[in-house]
Design brief:
Elements (H helix, E strand, L loop, with lengths): L1 H13 L5 H32 L5 H26 L1 H24 L1 H16 L7 E6 L2 E10 L3 E5 L5 E5 H4 L5 E2 L8 E9 L3 H14 L4 E9 L3 E9 L4 H8 L1 H11 L12 E4 L1
Antiparallel strand pairs: 1-2, 1-5, 2-3, 3-4, 6-8, 6-9, 7-8
Helix pairs in contact: 2-3, 3-4, 7-9
């Protein structure tokens, strides 16, 4: 029994974190744990990207690298806290990381807000690449296709070639209209201009008129805006019935008459209501 007790004592001595061999052994164990966690994180993110065609790969790669740094940082700090000779260093590392986090948080509130909002967009997916969105811009409503989703910004591409860059903290906090049905290629749209003071009444009249003609209304959206005039777009689904299609084709003339009968003025120099296929 004595040899066994001696071996056990030697093993216990080697595994003591205050010995050199023990510290090295625990370092190997902690590094192996960090490697396994990092590998599991990488496999999980790669699986999510492969099953989510709309997930931004650049953002996913950034999240993976950030996760690996966090894992290794906490594991090494925990190892340093376990070894008595390095315990003060481990405590200082944790305290320093906390102070650095507070300082960085105060110095980069806007950037961190965009980063956290970008992560939320990737997780909850209120919109995806290729979606047609209407958002509020400095000059009024903007309609564009989602061209890029990054951790910091969402970029929309408008029909006139402009790029609308939206900080993610703004994109996740404002109300956006998803116009995918309007952009699916199976919609009929009546574009018409009204004076700014009559926008609400004009939208109501246009949608009521379309429903009276048995059209399936998608919505009436604000398009271009000017100081005194607003362009509205009444969107309807393509009807399969030819008779119903014929009734919708004369909708622009009927809409002009209905607006005039309710005192909704047409801005000077603007075209009459026009039907197009979206």
């Amino acid at each position: 029994m004595q040899p066994v007790d001696a071996v056990t004592a030697d093993v216990e001595h080697w595994l003591r974190p205050d010995s050199l061999l023990g510290a090295i052994g625990y370092l190997v164990i902690f590094c192996a744990l960090a490697w396994l966690l990092s590998r599991a994180l990488r496999i999980g993110i790669e699986t999510a990207v492969s099953h989510g065609e709309h997930m931004d790969r650049t953002a996913a790669n950034f999240l993976r690298q950030l996760g690996v740094v966090i894992i290794w940082g906490f594991v090494l700090a925990a190892w340093a806290h376990l070894v008595p000779a390095l315990r003060d260093l481990g405590t200082a590392m944790l305290a320093g990381a906390s102070v650095a986090s507070i300082v960085l948080g105060l110095a980069a509130q806007s950037t961190l807000g965009n980063l956290i909002a970008g992560i939320s967009i990737l997780i909850y997916r209120p919109f995806r690449l290729g979606d047609l969105l209407q958002v509020s811009g400095p000059a009024g409503p903007e309609i564009g296709t989602v061209e890029l989703l990054s951790l910091g910004y969402t970029i929309l591409s408008t029909q006139d070639g402009r790029r609308v860059i939206i900080p993610n903290s703004v994109a996740i906090s404002q109300i956006a209209l998803n116009l995918n049905a309007y952009a699916s290629g199976s919609a009929l749209v009546v574009h018409f201009w009204v004076v700014r003071e009559s926008v609400r009444l004009a939208r109501t009249l246009a949608m009521d008129l379309a429903r009276d003609q048995r059209a399936e209304v998608i919505g009436c959206f604000v398009g271009h805006t000017e100081p005194a005039a607003v362009e509205l777009s009444l969107a309807m689904r393509q009807p399969a019935d030819p008779a119903l299609r014929a009734r919708i084709e004369v909708l622009p003339q009927r809409l002009a008459a209905v607006l005039a009968s309710h005192g909704v003025a047409s801005p000077p120099g603007k075209d009459a209501p026009m039907l197009v296929t979206a």
